[in-house]
Design a protein that fits this description.
The protein is an alpha+beta fold. 50% of the residues lie in helices and 28% in strands.
């Protein structure tokens, strides 16, 4: 699945480059009709392939998230805590957070849990998302129902121990 996603990302990038090359060919060809026509064809083909790649990437990403959720639901021993309110269904495992079908891993090459705070009734997770030196800091605030307060405290302690023990303060 991840290999498919990678392949479609490469196809999307190459087709976006084809669009740019087609635009450059069209603009730079002064009165040269064959180059202008080739530029238009290249741009339209690249745009079509790029848009289809984006649609496929979105579909594959949703499918991947559903697969990860199904793995957790098929093995309920992985679930540390879960709750449902009128807005969303939340599941926390040792490796990830699930909000409805959205899968947010705590430790992956593109997502990392940096810290979490528990101030009843709000659990705040600070995430770092991105890759190759480009990161976005994201904060996720979860409203925890009153009946889950007691159950959540050991989960928070375990997650802090697991994901913050190897962190080093910057010098």
């Amino acid at each position: 699945m991840l290999l498919k996603i990678f392949v479609y990302v490469v196809i999307m990038i190459l087709s976006a480059c084809a669009v740019l090359m087609g635009i450059i060919m069209y603009v730079m060809a002064e009165a040269d009709v064959p180059h202008r026509g080739m530029g238009i064809v290249l741009s339209i083909a690249g745009l079509t392939i790029c848009m289809q790649s984006i649609r496929t990437l979105i579909r594959l990403n949703r499918e991947y998230q559903r697969i990860e959720l199904k793995k957790v639901l098929d093995n309920p021993d992985q679930i540390l805590i879960q709750w449902e309110d009128e807005q969303q269904h939340t599941i926390i495992t040792a490796q990830a957070l699930f909000i409805d079908e959205q899968h947010i891993p705590f430790e992956a090459f593109y997502s990392k849990l940096t810290s979490l705070q528990w101030q009843p009734p709000t659990l705040t997770l600070n995430m770092e998302q991105g890759a190759a030196g480009w990161y976005i800091h994201k904060t996720i605030e979860l409203k925890v129902p009153d009946d889950k307060f007691r159950d959540l405290e050991p989960v928070v302690d375990a997650l802090q121990a697991a994901y913050q023990s190897d962190r080093k303060d910057p010098v």
